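DM from R.C. (forwarded with permission)

"hey, sorry to bug you on a friday — could you get me a structure for this? deadline for the figure draft is monday and I only need the backbone to look sensible"
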Amino acid sequence: MAHSILHQLGLDKSSREPHSVDTMVCQQEEPLVNHITELFEKISSLESLKPSQDVDMLFTQLVLACMPPSPIDVTKLCAKVQEMRSKLIRLCGEAEGLLEKHYSTLLANYDNPLEHLDIFPYFENYVKLSLLEYNIFTEHSTPVPKRVAFVGSGPLPLTSIVLALYHLPDTRFDNYDLDPAANEMAARLVGPDPDLSARMEFHTKDVMSVGKEELEQYDVVFLAALVGMDKEEKIKVIHHLAKNMAPGSTLMVRSAHGARAFLYPVVDPEDLCGFDVLSVFHPTDEVINSVVIARKTMDRTAPVYSNEWEHHSHNFSPLRMQSCKCTLEVQAFNRLNHGNIIEELAINNE
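My reply, with the result:
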């Protein structure tokens, strides 16, 4: 549910030219991969990803194909399919950003845009995801956060707005995005509301340039799904947050599971060096993103506090760098939402 920064991704029309992918892959997952590949090739051939009947139809088909629970492990797919998935995630990010800019522009025409958020076709999904994230957070933290940061907020910052309006009425929200136009559009939406405009700011910054003095002010940091479009980029952002967030503060990371990983990048628990991973929640309904909640370690001997830690190449294993033992429990039922999957990870330092 996060946002694409087009100049950061380097996507232009040439990157959307049709690509051929070998479909004879993936054993029992072959039919699903073949179907997603066909949709990818159709999406790649579009002249534009701006909202239109064709764009809406193809992305709806893609989401419906990826939504059902699937045992597929995208890390086990062949190289050609991995390449296709990487390009598809970027196309999804571009289309999502254009969709949100379109509706942010429409909402800005109202005297009070916040009264009309439901014109956005996926507004209810944001309401459900925000409630899910709020419930997960409150399960693991007693104090109400005073300051929250959302990294990758985009032109339609619905998560921040919904949390601020319905769940955290006294909390201040700082939204970060690389795109100044997106921040201007977002600010126009909350400007007419005196309460929200007083508690919400928008910063045009690369999170990698936001230092300790700023980041350690936040009780909770949300990391949008499309901040860091591949594993290497995502881990770099997480490492930066681990170095600069306050000990004991909370990181909420959006991820993906099963076939939904064709839509968004996956964040694995072992990617969060410097954090104690508390829970990984995989929705099975129309809420697409998984949610990972982690707490910045209080242990000053952890690798995140070492100057040597930042010089490791991107191929290192964060899990091996932690002197910890991880236990994983997967439950088919939890009180947040019947039928979803929640993974509780207890990290016990030795």
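R.C.: lifesaver. The chain has a mean pLDDT of 82.
me: no worries. The chain has two domains: 6-107, 123-349.
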